Amino acid sequence: MKIAFTTNNSVHINAHFGSAQQIDVYEVTAEGSRFVEGFSFEGNLNQDGNEDKLEPKIKALKDCTIVYVVAIGGGAAARLIGKNITPIKAPSETAEIQDVLTRFVHTLNHNPPPWLRKALLKSQLSSQSESPFDNPFDNQLTNKFEDASETLVEEVIV
Question: Which residue intervals define the domain Dinitrogenase iron-molybdenum cofactor biosynthesis in the entry (predicted)?
Answer without folding.
Answer: 12-104
